[in-house]
Design brief:
With 373 residues, this protein is an alpha/beta fold. It contains twelve helices and 13 strands. It has one domain: 3-Layer(aba) Sandwich (Rossmann fold), CATH 3.40.50.1820. An eight-stranded mixed beta sheet has the order 3-4-6-5-7-8-12-13, with helices on both faces. A three-stranded mixed beta sheet has the order 2-1-9. It has a two-stranded antiparallel ribbon with strand order 10-11. The longest helix is centred in the last third of the chain and has 18 residues. The relative contact order is 0.16.
């Protein structure tokens, strides 16, 4: 591409769909700012992990992390493999394994890595990969967010796991978080190598992009599709347009003021998590505007009846996204082994980091996968 423009819109504009801030900045300035952020974000972590309690060194007898790269349809996928504390290449033991798909706009070094590490502590080989076109994975244009790609990313993680000698291919499960939850549900609808599937704070990306948050923007779907279509024309000219859920800002103080001006809920918590408290320079919260052409035609609810595997959906009782888990869960008519588990008092984003919510979710996931794998 000759030139790349970053059209930064706030969460309410791009994810929820209502009006909000917008600005146009060059990719170079965004990258410069992200490098500055990175210097403050990693706290010296050798794998750039930004979640609480992250591994800082590989120690025998504890969970270890192993960065891996593999090819998926010609794209180099960057992933972190987490190995249980008793992992030993020299013995014959095989392990159950789990894929962990990250949220929209996120990266493997954030909440996906946290839950991958926690579940490795419970005895699973786990893998958290950056989606194609995103994070440290390859693919151009950067930050393309097509549902078909993200669904295939989940199956790609399964591909990697089944080829590992230490993985019991008959005991592979999948966990998806936020948007990664929706895509994990979609993958498990047809990929039956996934023997059990779970979601945390599931976000139905297609429904929200099409209808707006809370289905409040149905009347403007054609306008937004035209905007996405025009963005595809711009890509043909060498201009890639982006939007996302972090508002344009000059520094942390300005972003904090914007955050504090917002009502409680997904947007406010999202600014805090991705922009301030757990930020990562490759988790920009952005995606190509052209992606909306594909996103608006996707809805994970359409084929929920194809899931015949054991299903666990975890969400916060106070989450403003709870309706997405509830509606998808109701349509999962193909399995009798299913549960919608609510974490009392938890909001969507706070299931990503708040210690008591993470502990409760991890315990539930360990119990679920332990019985089904």
């Amino acid at each position: 591409m000759k030139k790349s423009l970053l059209n930064v819109a706030v969460f309410t504009a791009a994810v929820i769909g209502t009006a909000g801030f917008s600005a146009c900045i060059t990719t170079k300035s965004a990258e410069t700012r992200n490098k500055e952020v990175a210097m403050k974000s990693f706290n010296g972590n050798p794998w750039e992990l930004v979640y609480d309690g992250a591994i800082t060194e590989n120690v025998k007898g504890k969970v270890n992390i192993r960065p891996v790269t593999y090819d998926l349809n010609g794209i180099a996928i960057s992933a972190n493999l987490y190995l249980p504390a008793d992992y030993d290449e020299s013995d014959s033991k095989k392990y159950p394994a789990l894929t962990v798909a990250h949220p929209n706009g996120g990266s493997k070094e954030q909440v996906a890595g946290l839950y991958a590490q926690k579940l490795a502590e419970a005895g699973y080989i786990t893998i958290a990969a950056d989606a194609s076109y995103q994070g440290a994975s390859g693919g151009e244009p950067r930050l393309r967010d097509w549902p078909a790609n993200r669904i295939n990313d989940v199956s790609g993680m399964v591909d990697y796991l089944v080829q590992l000698p230490k993985v019991d291919s008959a005991r592979i499960g999948s966990l998806g978080i936020c948007g990664g939850g929706g895509y994990t549900l979609a993958a498990s609808q047809t990929d039956k190598r996934i023997r059990a599937v779970a979601t945390l704070s599931m976000f139905n990306s297609g429904r929200v992009r099409r209808n707006g948050f809370g289905d409040k923007q149905i009347a403007t779907v054609q306008e937004r599709l035209l905007r996405a279509s025009n963005a595809r024309n711009e890509e043909l000219k060498g201009n890639v347009l982006y939007e996302g859920f972090l508002p344009p800002h000059k520094d942390d103080d300005e972003l904090r003021k914007i955050m504090e001006s917002q009502p409680e809920g997904l947007y406010k918590d999202g600014i805090d998590y991705y922009g301030l408290s757990y930020r990562h320079p490759r988790a920009t919260g952005s995606y190509t505007t052209e992606s909306f052409i594909k996103l608006m035609a996707f809805d994970v609810e359409d084929r929920m009846d194809l899931i015949n595997q054991p299903l666990l959906m975890i969400a916060g009782s106070a989450a403003d996204t709870l309706y997405m888990s509830e509606d998808a869960f109701k349509k999962a008519s193909g399995t009798a082994d299913k549960e919608l588990y609510l974490i009392d008092g938890a909001s969507h984003i706070k299931t990503y980091w708040k210690s008591e919510y993470v502990a409760e979710a991890t315990n539930k996931l360990s119990e679920f996968f332990g019985k089904r794998l």
